Amino acid sequence: MIASLGPAPGGMTVPLPRENTHRPPMLWGRWGLRATAVLYLGLMIVLPLAAVTQHGLADGLSAFLDDVTQPLAIEALGLTIGAAVVMTAINAVMGTLTAYALVRYRFPGRGLLDGIVDLPFAIPTLVTGVMLVALYGPQTGVGSWLTSQGLPVIYAKPGIVLALLFVCYPFVVRTVQPVIHGAEKSQEEAAWTLGASGWTTFRRVVLPTIGPAILTGSMLSFARALGEFGSIIIVAGNIPGSTLTAPVYLYQQVEGDNTGAASAISIVLLALSFSTMWAIDRLQRRREGPRARV
C-alpha cells in the first residue's frame, strides 16, 4: 500500500510503502480452541459427574440417605477416611523430608532415588498389592513375625495404610520439590551464619516458603487415597465391618446390581474430594492475600 511520496535525489519523489497493520480475524481460532477445551472437559468430567449424581438421586433424597447410612456403608466410609488421614499425615512429613534431601544434598544414588520416587505412578495398583502381600503376607518371614508380635499387616488395617503410602508417595515430593528448587538458599545460609540450628532454619525459613506446596501435595494425596481400589482389594481382605473400604464396598454393590447404592457412595466420595480441594484453595488464597497487599 502506498503511504506518501518521499524526497529522492534530483528532486524526484518516490512512493514510500506503508506498513500493513490489517490482520486477518482470529475469532474462529480463539473461539474454536475454547469450544474444544470446554467440550472435552464436559465430555470427560462434567458429563460423568452429572450422570452419577442423577443416578444416585434418582429415587429421591430419602433413598439416597438410606443408601449412605447403611451400617456397612458408614463403617466403610469411616475406614476409608481414617486410613486416608493417617496416610496423609505420614506422607506430608516424609514427602517433605524426601524432597528437601533430593534438592539440598548430594549423595551417591541421588539420581536413582529421584527416579524411583515416580515409580508408584507407573506401577499398576494391583501389582502394588501383590508386592506388599509377597513381602508382608502371613506366609512370609517378615509377615509371620509381625503377626506373632500382634502386628498383622496384610488383611488388616495397617496393610491399607501401607498400600496408600506406596501409591500416594510421589504427590508431596513432586509438589514440594520445585518450590525448594526455586527458594533462595542464601536465606538458609544467612540463618546458619547467625547461629540457627538446622531444625530452626528449616522451621523458620524453609517451612513458611514450602507450606502451601505441602498443603497442596497433602490434599492431592488425601483425594487420591479416597478412591484407591486396586491395591486395597488385594491387601485388605475386604472383611465387612473390619477392612472393607468405601471403593471396595462400592464395587461390591455394583457386582450385586445395586447401582443406586454404588452411585450414592460415589457422590459422598466425590463431595469429600471436592470439599478438600476447595478448602485447601481457600487456605492458600487467605495465605497469599496479605502478601499481595504488601
Description:
By secondary structure, this protein is mainly alpha-helical. The protein has one domain (71-293): MetI-like (MetI-like fold, Orthogonal Bundle). It is globular. The longest helix has 35 residues, at 259-293. It is built from 13 helices and 2 strands. A two-stranded antiparallel sheet has the order 1-2. The two termini are 51 Å apart. 74% of the residues lie in helices and 4% in strands.
Number of strands: 2
Count of helical regions: 13
**Element pattern in H and E:** EEHHHHHHHHHHHHH
Please give the share of residues in helix.
over 70%
Quick one: CATH class?
Answer: Mainly Alpha
Q: What number of domains?
A: 1
> What global shape is seen?
globular
Keywords:
single chain; about 290 residues; mainly alpha; MetI-like fold; 2 strands; about 5% strand
Compact overview of the structure:
The chain is 74% helix and 4% strand. By secondary structure, the protein is mainly α. It has a two-stranded antiparallel ribbon.
Please give the structural blueprint.
Elements: E1 2-7, E2 13-17, H1 27-56, H2 61-68, H3 71-104, H4 110-116, H5 119-122, H6 125-136, H7 141-148, H8 157-182, H9 185-193, H10 198-226, H11 230-235, H12 246-255, H13 259-293
